[in-house]
C-alpha cells in the first residue's frame, strides 16, 4: 500500500489517517507555534473586566498644582481646589478564530470516540494558538490593520497623542504621557539611557516590570552582560572550572529584566518599551475569554462537517500612562 505524501490535503479529500500504526500515541504534535513571552506577561497580569458593559472605564486622578503655603501667626489663607478626577474610556474589542472538522474525519473515525476526541483536541488547540498569535500580532503592530483591532502597545506607550480619551496636549492632562528616551546609540549609551528612563518612571511612582527589546539590541545587551560575568572556580578541580555557564540569558538593567519576543522583533526593529503592568492592562471579559461555541453542522452552508468559533473579548488599556517607558529610534 502506498503511503500518502506529506503535502497539505484539501478538506474534501479522503485520507485514511487511522489505518497506520501511530508511534507515541495518537496526539498530534505541535510543529507550528512559537513562544509568546510578551503575551504571557500581559495575560498573567490581565485585569478581569467583570463581564458585560459597553465600555472599559479606568477612574483617573490627573493631579493638580500645589496651593499650599507656610503660615504665620494670625495670617489668613485662601481655600482653593481644582477638579482632578476623570476617567480613561476604552471600547471592548472582539477577536475570533474559526475551526472546521470535516465529515471525512468523522467518517474515518468510524464511531471511535477516542480517535475523534484527539482530532477535536488538535483542532481546538490549533484554534487557540492561532487566536493568541493574532492577538500578539495586534499588540506588537505599529498601526492597526483593521479598525476593530486591539490597540497596539506603541500607541499606548508614548508621550503624545490621545489614548483612552485623554491627551497630554490638552490642558490639565499633560501627565498623561509615557517617559521617552529617543535616538539611542545602543552599543555606546543604551544601558545608560535606559537607566535614565527607568529612573524617570520611578520618579512618577512607577515600577517597570520588564524591558522589551528587538533581537539585535537584546543580544547586544546580553553580550555586555557576558563580559561582566565572573565565573567562580571550582576548588575541587584545583583551580579549574568543571562547568561554565556561558552566555547571559536574562540581562537586568537596574534589577529590571530585559526580554525579547519574536513578534515584537518582527514589527519593531528599532523600538523598545518598558512596561509597568500596574499601569498597563490587557482587560478581559471573563465570560468571553477564549469562549468556544458548540460545534454546528455546516451542510446548510455547503460544507460537510462541523464548525465552531472561538471568541475573546478584551482590550489593551492604561490606567497610568506615565509609568511606562518608550525607547525609540535605537541604532
> What does the main sheet amount to?
6 strands, mixed
Query: What is the typical, i.e. mean, pLDDT?
Result: 85
The count of DSSP E runs of length 2 or more, i.e. the number of strands, is: 14
Measured distance between first and last alpha carbons: 58 Å
Question: Could you explain the architecture of this structure?
Answer:
With 331 residues, this protein is α+β, with helices and mostly antiparallel strands. It has a domain at 86-210 and 261-330. It is built from 7 helices and 14 strands. The strands form 3 sheets. Strands 1, 4, 10, 11, 12 and 13 form a 6-stranded mixed sheet that branches. A hairpin with a 2-residue loop joins strand 7 and strand 8. The longest helix has 28 residues, at 113-140. It is globular and about 95 Å long. The protein starts with 36 loop residues before the first helix and ends with a strand.
SSE layout and pairing:
Blueprint: H1 37-44, E1 47-48, E2 55-61, E3 85-91, E4 93-102, H2 103-109, H3 113-140, H4 153-156, E5 179-184, H5 186-203, E6 210-212, H6 215-228, E7 252-253, E8 256-259, H7 262-267, E9 272-275, E10 280-284, E11 291-292, E12 296-297, E13 305-318, E14 325-330
Parallel strand pairs: 1-10, 5-14, 6-8
Antiparallel strand pairs: 2-3, 4-13, 6-9, 7-8, 9-14, 10-13, 11-13, 12-13
For the structure shown, list the relevant keywords:
331 residues, alpha+beta, 26% helix, globular
Short description:
The chain contains 7 helices and 14 strands.
Amino acid at each position: 500500500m502506498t503511503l500518502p505524501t506529506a503535502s497539505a490535503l484539501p478538506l474534501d479529500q479522503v485520507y485514511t489517517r487511522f489505518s497506520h500504526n501511530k508511534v507515541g500515541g495518537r496526539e498530534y504534535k505541535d510543529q507550528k507555534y512559537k513562544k509568546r513571552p510578551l503575551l504571557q506577561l500581559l495575560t498573567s497580569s490581565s485585569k478581569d473586566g467583570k463581564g458585560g458593559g459597553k465600555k472599559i472605564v479606568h477612574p483617573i486622578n490627573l493631579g493638580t498644582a500645589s496651593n499650599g503655603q507656610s503660615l504665620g501667626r494670625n495670617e489668613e489663607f485662601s481655600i482653593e481646589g481644582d477638579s482632578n478626577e476623570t476617567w480613561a474610556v476604552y471600547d471592548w474589542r472582539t477577536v475570533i478564530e474559526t475551526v472546521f472538522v470535516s465529515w471525512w474525519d468523522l467518517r474515518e473515525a468510524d464511531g471511535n470516540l477516542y480517535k475523534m476526541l484527539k482530532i477535536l483536541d488538535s483542532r481546538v488547540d490549533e484554534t487557540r494558538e492561532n487566536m493568541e498569535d493574532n492577538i500578539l500580532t495586534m499588540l506588537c503592530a505599529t498601526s492597526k490593520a483593521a479598525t476593530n483591532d486591539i490597540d497596539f502597545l506603541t500607541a499606548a506607550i508614548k508621550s503624545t497623542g490621545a489614548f483612552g480619551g485623554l491627551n497630554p496636549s490638552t490642558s490639565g492632562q499633560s501627565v498623561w504621557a509615557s517617559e521617552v528616551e529617543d535616538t539611542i546609540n545602543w552599543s555606546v549609551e543604551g544601558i545608560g539611557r535606559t537607566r535614565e528612563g527607568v529612573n524617570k518612571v520611578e520618579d512618577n511612582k512607577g515600577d517597570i516590570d520588564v524591558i522589551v527589546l528587538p533581537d539585535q539590541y537584546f543580544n547586544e545587551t546580553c553580550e555586555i552582560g557576558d563580559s561582566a560575568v565572573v565565573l567562580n572556580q571550582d576548588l575541587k578541580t584545583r583551580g579549574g572550572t568543571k562547568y561554565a555557564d556561558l552566555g547571559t540569558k536574562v540581562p537586568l538593567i537596574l534589577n529590571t529584566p530585559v526580554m525579547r519576543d519574536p513578534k515584537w522583533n518582527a514589527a519593531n526593529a528599532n523600538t523598545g518599551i518598558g512596561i509597568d503592568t500596574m499601569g498597563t492592562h490587557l482587560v478581559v471579559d471573563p465570560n468571553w475569554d477564549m469562549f468556544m461555541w458548540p460545534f454546528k453542522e455546516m451542510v446548510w452552508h455547503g460544507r460537510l462537517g462541523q464548525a465552531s468559533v472561538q471568541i475573546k473579548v478584551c482590550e489593551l488599556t492604561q490606567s497610568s500612562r506615565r509609568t511606562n517607558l518608550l525607547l525609540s529610534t535605537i541604532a
